[in-house]
Amino acid sequence: MIPWSTSYLGLDAGRHTLKVVCVRRRVGRIDLVGTATLPRIADRNELAHQLRALLHTRGWSYYPCVLGLPSDLISTRILEIPPRGDARLRQIASSHIEEFEVLAAAPAVTEYAVMHSGGQRRLLLVTARVDTLAQELALPQAAGLNVVDIIPGPVAAYQGVRGWALRATAPTVVVQVGHEYTEWIVGHGHSLLHLRRIPIGGAALAADDAAVPLRERPTFSRWLEDLVAARRDYDLQYDTASFRPERLAIIGGFPFTRDDQETVAATLDMGPLPWRSGLPEQAASLATAAGLARAGAGRKPIRISLLPPDMKSSALERQQSRYWVAACLMLWATLAVITWHTHHAWSTRRAVKQAVEEEANRLYRMEREWTALQDANEELRQRLWPLRTAQRNNQAATALLHILAKSKGPDDWLVLIADHYTYFGHDAETTRETESSRNAEEEPPRPREMAMRRMVIEGYTPYDDLSSVRAMIERLREYPFLETVDLLPDDKLRPDWVPPVPVLSEWARRFALEIEWSGGGL
Predict the structure, then answer these.
(1) Cα separations (Å) of 89 from 93, 112, 113, 114, 187?
(2) If we measure between CA atoms, which residue out of 316, 311, 14 comes closest to residue 153?
(3) Mean pLDDT per segment of 10 residues, for the chain of length 522 residues?
């Protein structure tokens, strides 16, 4: 057997004609490759030579072959068995196998298959003598064919019809007309229901006067009566409506006309089975060979094999060789993939490690540069701090002078604008650091906070009741950027500072205002 073959042969070695069907297995379907027929001659060596030449011409010489065994060379029995219980099944099969071997009176091959149909289980038992199998294998082996399986003829016929005909939901009757006898086969799904052999074949049907229509020949009438009896026997055994057959397929080499087939189907109270399109004209005569080829391709609904034990073990070894080869290839492929993956992983890790180290060095250099820039920026900020403070103080003083000019009375004099700390003689830096440390947890420093946030304005007013000063205070409080505007008591005025306007001090009253800017500044 070719381990990787996808094409298979079915050989139906009839008594007068050899029929060969070649199929190819594809994904999800089986395609017909070709068919061939060869007349059977008495000289077996010459027949083997002709068969070898035919297969060589078609290019089919090395394809695995499945051989069909005619029903007259085998013993079959269909038994209904309990729906469950494998132990009971083995016991029934063993007892019948022993009975078959006793009847054979010679070494025999007995196989069985469990079939399911209509909620019931049935046991198909098939027995063939070993010497008979050897005789049937002589021709294909002499022709150089690689026989991988032997299947009973009725099983192959039903499987061929089931594969080539349209699907039927009810049981199907297959009437296979051979040269010497006719086989009555009833199947449903993956199960055979009824088998019967009728001792009238194509030779007897053709022996009558050819000038008389087939339906009027006496042999055809007797043949049809035997079919009716087989149908009656089947109906007695399967008396439920679910087992009533509806379609009939007549296969074999005898040339039935369409009217003859319809006559047979009408007599048996059934309709002709429709075939699939694309089949050859001799599809009915090649159905058994097609069933054999499909079985080799894996479409084997009834799994039963009559290969001798030695050939079965050899075929099993050849069949399993593909899996051993595939397993070795998969092992080597897996090892290659693992090796490549390991090498690739280490290479990737080394590359990643090198890239990470380079990136870490780059980030370290950037950090050092950033730290240096921060230090330089801080040094520059410290150097520019006095200039920024002076600038902001100038802005504050200018703004304050502007709003004071708009807010003071026309008779009032302003003689001093001073920082709060300078006016009261405190150390401004120390005071600021103390307040900053005290308020550090209360609120963060504000970026626009001015150096001179609290200021003192001194002046003179001619009004002893300070009415113009209070009016100025009210006007100053209207500005949102001034947080507080208050009049300092006389005891808070600095006594050590004498304004440079002695004339005014004789008739005017001295006053001082304390102004505090809001946190946001101007």
Answers:
(1) 6, 11, 11, 9, 21
(2) 14
(3) 69 89 86 90 90 92 91 85 68 71 72 80 86 90 90 91 78 90 90 91 85 86 93 90 88 86 90 79 86 86 82 64 80 90 89 92 93 91 79 78 86 85 64 48 42 83 88 89 88 72 66 82 50
pTM over 0.85: no
- What letter represents residue 170's amino acid? A
d(CA 271, CA 231): 14
Nearest by Cα to 195 from 169, 233, 247, 150 = 233
Three-class SS state of 411? coil
Question: H/E/C letters for each residue in 18-86?
Answer: EEEEEEEEECCEEEEEEEEEEECCCCHHHHHHHHHHHHHHHCCCCCEEEEEECHHHCEEEEEEECCCCH
Backbone angles phi, psi at 76, to 5 degrees: -125, 155
Residue with tokens 């947080």: 483
Q: Would you say 419 and 403 are in contact if contact means Cβ atoms under 8 Å apart? A: no
Cα distance between residue 438 and residue 445, in whole Å: 12
Q: Return the closest-CA partner of residue 415 out of 517, 521, 494.
A: 494
Other C-beta atoms lying within 10 Å of the C-beta of residue 337: 10
- Tell me what pLDDT residue 446 has: 39
| DSSP code string of 428-481 | HHHHHHHHHHHSTTTSPPPTT--S--EEEEEEEES-TT-HHHHHHHHHHHTSTT
Question: 509-517 and 482-487: which strand pairing?
Answer: antiparallel
Residue ranges in 105-172 assigned as alpha helix (H): 130-142, 153-164
DSSP-assigned states of every residue in 348-383 = HHHHHHHHHHHHHHHHHHHHHHHHHHHHHHHHHHHH
Distance (Å, whole) CA 63 – CA 401: 114
The one-letter code for the residue type at 509 is R
> Which position has the token pair 């504000």?
446
Q: In the structure encoding, which two tokens stand for residue 412, read together?
A: 């009032």
Report which residue type is found at 38: L
* Cβ neighbours for 249, distance < 8 A, ≥ 6 positions apart: 161, 165, 172, 173, 174, 175, 272, 273, 284, 287
- pLDDT value at residue 503: 52
Q: How many angstroms separate the CA atoms of 405 and 428, rounded?
A: 27
Instruction: Write down the pLDDT at residue 426.
Output: 59
Q: What share of the chain is helix, strand, coil (3-state, %, to 5)?
A: 50, 25, 30
Give the phi and the psi of residue 275 in degrees, each rounded to 5.
-90, 160
- Rounded distance between C-alpha atoms, residue 408 and residue 282, angstroms: 127
Q: What is the DSSP letter of 216?
A: G
Q: Would you state the structure tokens that stand for residue 458, as one six-digit string? A: 């001194």
* Sign for the pseudo-dihedral over CA of 98, 180, 13, 139: positive
CA angle, residues 242, 222, 72, in degrees to nearest 5? 75
